[in-house]
Amino acid sequence: MDRTVYRKSAPYLVILLVAVGTLLISRCFMHPTSPVRRSQLAQVDKGDLEIRVQTVGVLDAARTHMVSSAIRGDKGKIIFLVEDGALVAEGDVLVRLDPTPFETEVHRLSGEVRSLGAAQDSAKQMLEWEKNQMVREIQNAHYNSKVAELELRRLVEGEGPLQLAQYKGELDKARDEYTRYQTYIAELDKLQTQGFANPTELTQAREKVDQLSRLYETARQRYESYKNHVLPTAIETARAKVDKSGVEIQQLEKGSAFKVARAAAALNEVQGKLETAQASLQQALTGLSHTTIQAPFGGIAILYETFRDGQKRKPRVGDRVWQNQPLLYLPDISTMIVNTQIREVDLHKVAMDQECTVHVDAYPDVSFSGKVTLLGMLATERFQQGLGEKYFQLTITLGGKNERLRPGMTARVTIESGDAEEILYVPTPAVFNDGARSYCYHLQKDGKFLEQTVVVGHHNEDLVEIVSGLHKGDWVSLLKPPAGQILSES
């Protein structure tokens, strides 16, 4: 065909295509007997409805443990690492870190603790010696003070007055004797004037008086000296000794307390160093114990992939690890769970401990039993096709043990919630919702569709119960018809 014929026939071809398309579209909505129309329509039917919830989730272990280094800083160096994916039992060694630095530190600190322990014993003995010495010296000082007080009391109340009385008696005796002889001489002088002279006797009497006069003067001086000088001096000396003993007691108490305090401070210093060394030793022992990491329970050892030395990879022997840096993930596959979500509209169909059936994509011919063990309390919103729909977290725990199951496998959960008998129902796509009401596009005799409000009841993934608004045998559209084909409710 040349270009001229093509240009002349092109408009007719376009008109023909438009006519054919219009005919096909109009026939889609004229009568439910057409095969094309049947693919877009569904008939309201009556029967039993299985109420179930179906969802897809991911298998995980019910109990998991993240293995990491508990050694402070970057002192950990891997010298042994369990094989990736290996099955391990409780107590199996997962990771060994180089113990050499910790063994050296433990040896050094053990010697330091022993040395400081001996120094502590010595400081304790010194403190006890200072305390005992303080007690002895203070007791001796109190004894000396008591002796000084007794000496003072002896001089004031005992020996001093007694000695003074003795000297006073000697003085009185000498004075009496002296006075008596003076009287005797006076009588001799009187007799001499009367003519009865006795020169010899008078001479002897005068000599005796002179002797007694000297004795009396000596006694008087002794008495006066003791009374006014000797005794007061002795008493003051004794008082001074008492005062001195009191001062010595105070000085001893202060000095001894200082010595005891100094010995106690030395003991505290040694104890502080010992406690620090003991804490460091315990820390080193703890670090040494952390060089061997064992499995807390049986499971699969999965090495943790993260950035190391500028590249994303799994740990290997020779790597240095930081404290709390994840090394491997240990899921316990003896009890498996499915983590999934359910729609808010399906929440009323699910209850705790409700039985369910689980199929795993990896084993399509095997089904597993399970039950609901967790219903989320908070909703999350997911936007699909421009609409926001709320979902709740759901956890299913599988019964029994199956070593073929692995974390991360895709699992499909079916929760049977019961049956609804002899109800009207339509396919789920036939029910539309604008947020305020539910409605269907009801096919009319003229080929148009009435936007019919309906009341829905039970539903599952495929079918929805029609409580009111439609009757058995009615035809409804599974798709929204063109705007020109929609009739509003009167």
Describe, in plain words, how this protein is organized in 3D.
The protein has 490 residues and is of the alpha+beta class. Among the domains are: 1-30; 67-95 and 292-321, OB fold (Dihydrolipoamide Acetyltransferase, E2P); 103-288. The chain contains four helices and 22 strands. It has helices spanning 3-28, 35-40, 100-193, 199-289, and strands spanning 41-43, 45-68, 76-81, 87-88, 93-97, 292-294, 299-300, 302-303, 306-308, 311-313, 320-321, 326-343, 355-360, 363-384, 387-398, 410-427, 432-433, 438-443, 449-459, 463-468, 475-477, 486-487. The strands form five sheets. Strands 2-12-15-14-13-16 form a six-stranded antiparallel β-barrel. A hairpin with a 2-residue loop joins strand 9 and strand 10. Helix 3 runs antiparallel to helix 4. The longest helix has 94 residues, at 100-193. The chain is rod-shaped. The two termini are 57 Å apart.
